[in-house]
Amino acid sequence: MNRRLSKPPVVGPHPVVFSWDLDKTYLKSEFDSLRELVKIPFEKPEDKIAVPGVVPLIRNLRSQAATAGRDARVFFISASPPQIAKAIKDKLALDGVEYDGITFKNQLQNIVRGKFRNLREQVGYKLTELLRARPSFPAVAREVLFGDDWESDPIIYSLYGDILAGNIDHGEIRGILEIIGVDPALIAEAETLAEPIAAIDAVERIYINLERRTPPKLFEHFGARLVPTFNYFQTACCLFQDGYLNLAAVVEVASHLVASSGYTPLRLSNSLADIARRRHLNEVTTIAISEYMHAKGLLPLPRRGRSERQPLWQRIRRWLRSRPKRTVETLQPRPAINYHELIAEWRQAR
């Protein structure tokens, strides 16, 4: 059923690829109406607004990878037409964001061919672009994907990750994409691109920016690999836990939210409590972030009980001693996603 996973040896920190959706994940794009969609190509770079916190997040991901000696690359996948490429690239330069590649959707080609349905269809477009790019990465490269809840990023990224991991047979790809309604030409292209890729569980994490404020509970069927976040402070906390950021970077992202979006220490505290309550952060990570941000004046000072007066290292040691041992079940591969059921439930919920 599944292809055998290929795991070449890794020397030093594993290479990592950070792939970002552009609209509503990096840029606060508005295209709910035709009028807003037509206006996009005429916007100047300085008129485009980045999502709060995203710029310091990407900068730190790159700089800290360089410090660690890790090969890290940043790519953008945009559903916008190539006609606005210059404005987008100028905006990234204005933000001081370095990147390794950016892909635009050739909407003019869809119009010429009369494929008007493909103007707003993203699954086939993004999936084929991700599969096309994979062979250009180091064989052992991990991937961290960033999208939003506006359309189908959770399904696209999860499907891509499971194709890479060999959790989806070649014959299943067509059936899943047909249910979604992907153009037959793109289905055939996805099958062709997926065939030669060596199976490796490469997609480490998927972050979904809750632009539409979709209830996080709706993402539970996607598994723990997918992390829905309400802001980039929550995302930064999880990236710290995974070893891609340090605490100073988390503080920089939080400070940007304070300066650009009016976040208060209480609101940041609630964000930290929320992502921890949803079990995307363990207790050690939560304590470390909380203590560091208290020291920086970014979280309200807590009312300390007797145990909380102990030094941080003592509280972490106590937690490590008291936590349950990992069972055999926790070491098993992540549960397989039933995409037929997931797609039906996702459509109904949306």
The number of helical elements comes to 14
Strand order of the largest sheet: 3-2-1-4-5-6
From the N-terminal CA to the C-terminal CA, the straight-line distance is: 32 Å
Task: Sum up the overall morphology in one term.
Answer: globular
Kindly report the average pLDDT value: 84
Write down the CATH class of the domain at 16-229.
Answer: Alpha Beta
Strand content: 5-15%
Indicate the CATH topology of the domain at 16-229.
Rossmann fold
Q: What is the CA-based Rg, rounded?
A: 21 Å
Low-confidence stretches: 6-10, 31-38, 322-332
In N-to-C order, the SSE pattern is EHHEHEHHEHHHEEHHHHHH
Which structural category do the helix and sheet elements fall into?
alpha/beta
Just name the CATH architecture of the domain at 16-229: 3-Layer(aba) Sandwich
Fraction of residues in H or I helices: 40-55%
Q: Quick one: how many beta strands? A: 6
Largest sheet: 6 strands, parallel
